[in-house]
TrEMBL record:
Domain of life: Bacteria
Alphabetical keyword list: Membrane, Transmembrane, Transmembrane helix
Transmembrane segments: 14-43, 68-90
Organism: Lysobacter enzymogenes
Location of this chain's protein in the cell: Membrane
Name of the featured protein: CD225/dispanin family protein
Length: 110
């Protein structure tokens, strides 16, 4: 009846979030966007080893740093995604306006 209680880490390592940010950062903003994700992966991977070594304060700091770098990477990815969407519409609008001008010129020439 008494089952052992498995205690999870008191500090999250943010590895999933940091890996997602790294991949999206590499897709949208090259190495600049992927760099914060890589830093977050490094700090996130330190959380478990520091807890295992008994360094609870170090594990807490590593977790906080991983979270900070995940947020920085997320912000860069969000800005890059917005920039990509905005540039797509600006380029698309300029292309469409050139086409419209050509149609107007042809209509006036008839």
């Amino acid at each position: 009846m008494n089952q052992p209680v498995v205690a999870g880490s008191p500090y999250p390592n943010y590895l999933v979030w940091s890996i997602i940010v790294t991949v999206l950062g590499a897709c949208f903003c090259c190495l600049i966007g992927a760099a914060p994700g890589v830093v977050a992966i490094v700090f996130g991977s330190q959380v478990g080893s520091k807890l295992a070594a008994g360094d609870e304060a170090g594990a807490r700091r590593a977790s906080e740093q991983a979270k900070l770098w995940c947020w920085i990477g997320t912000a860069l990815v969000a800005v890059s995604l917005l920039w990509t969407i905005l540039s797509f519409f600006i380029e698309g609008a300029s292309f469409m306006s050139q086409e419209f001008l050509e149609q107007v010129r042809r209509a006036q020439g008839r």
